[in-house]
Amino acid sequence: MNTTNSIQQALFHRFDREQWAELRQSVPLTLSETELVDLQGMNEQLSLAEVTDIYLPLSRLLNLIIDAKQQRSFVLNQFLDHKVDHSPYIISISGSVAVGKSTTARILQTLLQRWPQHPKVDLVTTDGFLYPLADLKRKGLMKRKGFPESYDKKMLSQFIADVKAGHDEVLAPLYSHVTYDRRHDEHQPIRQPDILILEGLNVLQTDADTLVESRKPFVSDFVDFSIYVDAEESLLKEWYMQRFLQFRQGAFANPKSYFNHYSKLTDAEANAIAANIWDTINGPNLKLNILPTRERADLILTKGANHLMDKVLLKK
Ligand SMILES: Nc1ncnc2c1ncn2[C@@H]1O[C@H](COP(=O)(O)OP(=O)(O)OP(=O)(O)O)[C@@H](O)[C@H]1O
Ligand SMILES: CC(C)(CO)[C@@H](O)C(=O)NCCC(=O)O
What is its EC number (predicted)? Predict the structure, then answer.
């Protein structure tokens, strides 16, 4: 057995797809027509089997865990004899570029808000916390987008601390995949949700490299449950390249797109560019900064070909 396997065996319960699907138990299979349309609108390739086998058991597990947390708050209220501030339950989702973090996050948002105990579920991506394009250019980080140094970590930890503190309204910055830059015209207001899902490749990272005296709380200090979406690098590169080709016909064709010049490429040229971006940016970032954080997660979802989940690891 290799080291990764033995570490995983020590830390996690392991389920194959069939074993995990059985844990759905009493969660109703039937989603309303609107919920189904919502889910499929997110991604037409998403199969109903994936929702029922993988995401419904996960939604059941999270509901039980959140319920326990809400009971703990109730006990604390009684003990302290006053109401503690409304503090949202925070779920993080991390993993490589193109693994499907935002798709997973949106499926979970839809499923979790069906439970009466936590109807308001907000979703924030850490893309908005990338430094604005002008700053990245000035700092020479244009080929390091997605690396730890390309994010405003101070802004991100302040944001998550303010949400956790139960502030009435906290503003999240938004990112545009069209202009490849932070949006200067609009923010996302977060107003005391029951659950906040925070999605991004950096959410399990720590500041361990900095001097001990200057270490600040990390995002993970505020997170109640963390999920890592995993897949072999060969699949990730393939999904990244497929999406790049789709963008070329969609977002890149927009004259405002930072990558408008890509829309005129032939398939072969586009494939070569996408492969190069993977090999020089997203692949190295995965190996250096993302994969090493995997075993910190409470749950690891592993995908095989066609985005089908084939293994689930749940922290003991
Ligand atoms: N469950 C799924 N079934 C089928 N296709 C999927 C699934 N999840 C994601 N995809 C496809 O994989 C690609 C990447 O998905 P997504 O944009 O969700 O990834 P991401 O991890 O959020 O990426 P990034 O870090 O670049 O924002 C997209 O083309 C998406 O359509
Ligand atoms: C915005 C990030 C960093 C993360 O979602 C990523 O999609 C990205 O832009 N990476 C840089 C290289 C690339 O264009 O894929």
Answer: 2.7.1.33
Pocket residue to mutate for ligand 1, from 43, 151, 247, most atoms within 8 A of Cβ: 43
Expressed in angstroms and rounded, the spacing between residue 40 Cα and the centre of ligand 1 is: 13
User: Please, what are the domains in the chain?
Assistant: 18-78+87-315 (3.40.50.300)
Residue 127 CA: nearest ligand 2 atom is 1
**Antiparallel, parallel or unpaired: β 89-95 and 195-199:** parallel
Nearby residues of 135 by Cβ (< 8 Å), 6 or more positions away: none
Nearest to 160 by CA among 220, 113, 84, 202: 220
Query: pLDDT tens digits for 228-272?
Result: 999 999 999 999 999 999 888 888 888 889 888 888 889 999 999
Closest ligand 1 atom to the C-alpha of 200?
A: 25
Q: Answer yes or no: is the C-beta of 182 below 6 A from any ligand 2 atom.
A: no
How far apart (Å, rounded) are the C-alpha atoms in residues 127 and 10?
33
Give the Å distance between the CA of 301 and the centre of ligand 1: 14
Q: Is 41 annotated as a binding residue?
A: no
29-72 per-position pLDDT tens digit: 566 667 777 777 677 788 888 888 999 999 989 999 999 998 88
- Please give the full DSSP string across 9-44, using - where no structure is assigned: HHHEEEEEHHHHHHTTTTS-SPPPHHHHHHHHHH-T
Which residue's CA is minimally distant from atom 3 of ligand 1? 46
> What are the tokens at 125?
């991506």
ipTM of this predicted complex?
0.93
Length of the chain equals: 316
The type of residue at 282 is N
